[in-house]
Design brief:
mainly alpha; single chain
């Protein structure tokens, strides 16, 4: 049985974002928190700027700039600094478990500012996920770990802000376009950290340099491109489910690459967190059937999903653009 290209793209995305967490630990050794935060965004921004004309990335409307600024400041700038800072003491796999609860904060913000209804499943899932995060935060047993774990959780909060801020943008732009805009904006915000980045490139070891370039090219630039390709061709249920695999894969990569073994208590907290997020993202059967119909339509050519000039089917067969369907926005940088 031949595996569709979209499935391979989704698998590559999961591996790319999972591998970012151990790569951060290696990059920190040569660049430090400040230098790594900017260096990764610069590499990713340059790569996406080169690829943007070929990917059909359009110029954003002026009225959308404030929301793009919020996306860049939260999901790129603040997220990078907080995650890198937290991973100084928190193992890579454990950090991935904490970041996995970001959708909880997106749901809460959407309910507070967009008037979205919180169902009982979302309420229960939010509580379970937050309990799981709290369990992880105290799993290390020492003050430095606990403090750093809360910093990583703060990174999950700002990533939740990013998911929330992308919602109105995804009505008019693709997930890849929103990611590009946010990446470029976030890079501008971190330019004051340029001296630390330059020092890192001048003095870092070969391993740290390779990890930093890898972070910018593979999890950041390539990750967003293949993610956009996959979600345009697969159902929302499949795309969302795949994201649950990022923490387990990150744990495996961190063990193979760095020899990290998370504590049993951290794993229990991680299971709770992922379970809570799964409850939040659980969709009614009718919605899942609609997603499957959309995916089949896209696969059959009824909806042309590439580029800014999308062909729409006749009105009686019209389906939403992939970027407009409710579901997983392109996540912030892993």
């Amino acid at each position: 049985m031949k595996i569709p290209k979209a499935i391979w793209a989704l698998a590559l995305t999961v591996f790319a974002w999972a591998s970012a967490f151990p790569a951060i630990r290696v990059g920190l050794g040569g660049f430090g928190v400040a230098g790594l935060s900017l260096a990764r965004l610069v590499v990713a921004s340059v790569a996406l700027a080169i690829a943007a004309p070929f990917l059909g990335v359009r110029t954003p409307r002026r009225r959308d700039l404030p929301m793009i600024v919020l996306c860049g400041a939260s999901g790129m700038s603040a997220y990078q600094i907080l995650l890198n800072w937290g991973e100084v003491h928190v193992p890579a796999g454990t950090a991935s478990l904490l970041i996995a609860v970001a959708p909880v904060f997106s749901v809460l913000l959407a309910a507070a500012f967009l008037g979205e209804r919180i169902t009982w499943l979302k309420a229960v899932g939010s509580v379970v996920a937050i309990v799981g995060a709290a369990v992880i935060a105290v799993a290390g047993g020492h003050a430095e770990y606990t403090a750093s774990a809360w910093v990583v959780l703060a990174a999950a909060v700002v990533q939740g802000v990013y998911h929330f801020a992308t919602k109105p943008l995804l009505v008019r732009y693709t997930g890849l376009e929103v990611a590009c805009y946010a990446m470029w904006a976030g890079t501008l915000f971190l330019l004051p950290l340029l001296p630390w980045m330059v020092h890192g490139f001048a003095t870092a070891s070969a391993a740290s340099l390779a990890s930093t370039v890898f972070l910018g090219l593979f999890p950041s630039a390539v990750g967003f491109v293949v993610w956009g390709y996959a979600v345009a061709r697969l159902s929302i249920a499949s795309s969302t489910a795949a994201l649950y695999l990022v923490p387990p894969v990150a744990l495996i990569v961190a063990y193979v690459w760095l020899g990290e073994v998370p504590s049993p208590l951290a794993l229990v907290g991680g299971v709770l967190g992922i379970t809570g997020v799964a409850l939040i993202n659980r969709r009614p059967r009718r919605a899942v059937r609609d997603d499957a119909t959309d995916a089949l339509a896209a696969e059959s050519g009824m909806v042309h999903t590439e580029g800014p000039d999308r062909k729409e089917p006749p009105s009686h067969h019209r389906t939403a653009r992939p970027a407009e369907r409710p579901g997983p926005a392109a996540p912030g940088l892993k």
